[in-house]
Amino acid sequence: MSNIFSERIEALRGLMLSRGWDAVIIGGSDPHQSEYPADRWKQVRWLTGFTGEAGDVVVTLDHCGLWTDTRYFIQAREQLEGTGAVLHKTRVPEEVLIPEWLGMQFGSDAVIAVDSLCQSAQTVESLRSCFNVIGVPDLLSVLWEDRPAIPQTPVFRIRAGETRQEKLRWLRETLAENGCDVILVSALDEVAWLLNIRASDIEYNPMAISYLLVGEDYANWYVLKDEVEDPQSLDTFDVLAQEGISILPYDSTALSLAELEDKTLWLDSASVNAQLREAVRCRVVLRPSPVAERKEVKDPKEIEWMRECHIRDGLAMEKFLYWLERSLAAGKSISEWDAAVKLGQYRSEIADYMGDSFETISAYGKGAALPHYITPKENAPLLEPHGLYLCDSGGQYLSGTTDITRTIPLGDCTDEEIRDYTLVLKGHIDLASAIFPAGTPGCRIDAAARLPLWRNLCNYGHGTGHGVGFFLGVHEGPHQIRQNMGPEPLVEGMVTSDEPGIYREGKHGVRHENLLLTVDAGTTEFGSFLAFETLTLCHFDASIIDVQLLDRYELEWLNAYNLKVFETLGPLLDEELRQWLKTKTAPIVLE
Description:
The chain is α+β, with helices and mostly antiparallel strands. β22 and β23 (476-481) form a beta hairpin.
């Protein structure tokens, strides 16, 4: 049975036949390799209907496949039904990734077309070592008649621990130390961080779609501004120009790169797109951007502001949880969507709130078994006075970015729900209380959160922790805590999530998430050690915990954390809510 997505896939096959292409690769990113693209570049969604945040599509004349990871398997199966596209699983032992799969289907003379604007130079170069690859910018535009334009939203300056001049001075010193004259900064969060500017070009991500070219004595910012009439934006452009930063058209980036004939250019081939890479005529040094590592270590002012930000965010969370409990007890009908909207209202009351940091995951029962569940606006499931409700949410504030998940018992829970709830909390606590040698990468401590689950033959398919920006992306790298091998060490000043989970398809899902700040734990004759300070402030509901599953130190950690939540937030709440929180944070009596 045909649907709009199967028709689009067939239309693409018609284009392939007319151009002599054997396969087309459609990536899930944008020209800056962003995790979350603007609507213009949601090509996978337009072609197949899949709405997950990570997915790439390969179309041949007789096959259409979507490659995505464990977070989206259930979602992909549901959304691809009737499209003619099939799921290819990644991050599983039996995975066959796109280059290998193409090699099994075609010889080296196969013609593979890619959107060279939305594929990284690194990816395309790898493919070209095996196939005849043709780069076609905006490949789908010939079929996508109502394709959205590149967004332009007001650009504004923010307060930051370091000035633009200080950051650019550091970057120029780094260039000189590495024998380079110029660097192209193409990742949107890196541009925003360097210039201390923000915008709203991508939903939930306070960034402007732009590039930054930094040389020994100049900085060129390539950005759309023709349609921006906002006074604050115009003032921002004027201030940057006065500081010696040239504001140039976004589409002139390639021309500027082509003119660097006698320079040595630093490029990050993982973030620069293939189209721009092909415009370069000068000597190139391919290295990861130094901005990413510098940005993920927060400076003292940013840390201070983020601590304050989490107090305000915690107050919104506690008001929401109080409202939820009281409303359900009063017999009110509340849907998943109603709950998400109410939480957004509480956050919007915070003075420096700038929006959510991602779409709130408000999931009851079986919906919570999807790690990246999309809460429906229409006919959303109703919350019932039993079982588990999972809410994963976050805010963007001028003073920081938050990300918190709470799994909330709404009444009686099954033995399985109680056990899963407790085991995930046990894993969360074990990671939050970890102490480890300086220089340890996140992949080496991932097992701290998983061991309690592994001992009970449980696991989860997503990572345990991701970096979080300062009023930037809620996902920030390169550091992370996950099983995948990665060399990036955890460093004092980094902010990382702690979010183990258990998901039982068709039943329930459990995830407990706080944000952690990496801090100094001391130095001994055995070296320097690091630990975590929990930034998030919102109680964990202890009413259904199976105390027998927790060790004494885990119970002590939980009691101490809940006490800190009460002592920090309680004085800022009205008396009724304060008494409720006091009850919720009452210590578990230790035998």
